[in-house]
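We close this part of the discussion by returning to an individual protein. The amino acid sequence and the backbone structure tokens for this protein are reproduced below:
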Amino acid sequence: MQAELRSGWCRLDEVNQAQCYEAHTEDISTRGCAVISQKQMVEGALITVTIAGTGDTPLQLHLAATVIHVERLDGRYRCGLRFENVTPDQRAALTRFVLRRQADRAA
């Protein structure tokens, strides 16, 4: 999946698996996020999350995450992800991204 990510979407890569898919991001913070996915994930699974910002918030972060919650929603799944081993630079970039996203929604 080399295409550019759409705004509000992320790419999920399961560690030690040959699967890669997109999910819609919700409730993103510097500690984790929720995603809405067509694919059911397993609690405790390790994944890599790729988040891309656009426009005034150019960003491409690759973050390790653990699936901490899975809820079924009408044929889709809402999954809670906790970011792991976030570096100070990644945390700063993520903070800017989250603040910009909040400002855009308030406007």
